Amino acid sequence: MYVELKDINKTYAGYQASNHVSFGIEQGRLIALLGPSGSGKTTILRMIAGLETPDSGEIVIDGKVVNNIPASERGIGFVFQNYALFENMTVLKNVAYALFRYMTVYDNIAFGLNVKKENKKYIDERVHELLKLISLDGLEKRYPSQLSGGQRQRVAFARALAPNPHLLLLDEPFAAIDAKVRQELRSWLKEMIEKLGITSIFVTHDQDEAIEVADEIIITNKGHIEQKGTPLEIYQNPQTAFAATFFGQTSQITNYQSFHSFPKVDNVDKAIIRPEFVKVSKKNEVQRFGPSASEGVVERVSFRGDSLELLVNVNDNQIIAKRGLEEKSIAVGEKVDVFIYRLFVTVGEKAMLLENQSLVDDSVFI
Ligand code: ADP
Ligand code: MG
Fold this sequence. Notes:
Layout: E1 3-12, E2 15-25, E3 30-34, H1 41-49, E4 56-61, E5 64-65, E6 76-79, H2 105-115, H3 120-133, H4 149-161, E7 167-171, H5 179-196, E8 199-204, H6 207-213, E9 216-221, E10 224-229, H7 231-236, H8 241-246, E11 251-253, E12 270-273, E13 278-282, E14 294-303, E15 308-314, E16 317-323, E17 335-340, E18 342-347, E19 350-355, H9 357-364
Parallel strand pairs: 3-8, 3-9, 6-7, 7-8
Antiparallel strand pairs: 1-2, 1-4, 4-5, 9-10, 11-12, 12-18, 13-17, 14-15, 14-17, 15-16, 18-19
The site of magnesium ion has 2 residues, from helix 1.
């Protein structure tokens, strides 16, 4: 493991921002810390960077315990949340928060190298190399206010990379950028980090961003780690109730036993259903699993660009389902058959996947 957090605790005025946090990251990987606002993501990054000290536990980087090593000596690059332009800021050698308003692009990128007192020739070569990397060569004399949001964030990225850090920390780097540019920056960042092979931790509260960008996701909730795995592993096999509800647009129902053909589990709190687990059919359509379907009434139909989203009331539950645009249209108030392929049930903090038994039985005859 290149980075390891071992049982880290951190309390702010009685509030436990990190609660027994442990995880490891292999060298060269791009990891997303994913969780709602206030779940402790930034606290974790700040402790890894050395901007904050854990109350207990160890932070290990490249085999060395770094708890007592100052931020400036950890060899870490940091890209902050937004590109707000600060005029004056205390900046630790290679840990800078935002672009300096009164410095050109060139001087912003050169900043960490100047602090390290590298020679001018080396700095000039390095800055030009980075300008090329971020496709902004020619713009080195501009000031941050003369750049677009996406360009500023690329400069912030180049500045963090300039001193050749071994670890890159990015705290919601695209949070303040509009949707279309954010999308482009995501793929740009993923490509860039793959190319450079630099171990990176990327904080986000946006599931889509994490799924799209990260090799692995660590889900944070109320200061602790809920689950760690590849995006697919977490999507397919959420181990906690929180992780199961965190991805996608889920519906929650309390009486899953009112749906046919699911095995009985004791002490279930609720069931969680993703739209892709649900098949909605019109009354006159052939239904392969007809006998196991339940009747529902459509309450809302919304156009979602690539599909129709249906809100269907079944046994007093509101369930969100999708229907293809090429399928026969369904109207509000229409009675429909609803078949649920699978669902997650939660028992306390745990989540487990249940398959509809009629699918299992059916497969015997295939
Ligand atoms: P996230 O980045 O996931 O939104 P943070 O790590 O910033 O969460 O914060 C986790 C919790 O710790 C929040 O409740 C926040 O208010 C609290 N917190 C963070 N930093 C400080 C601080 N310097 N002083 C007091 N409370 C803090
Ligand atoms: Mg944060």
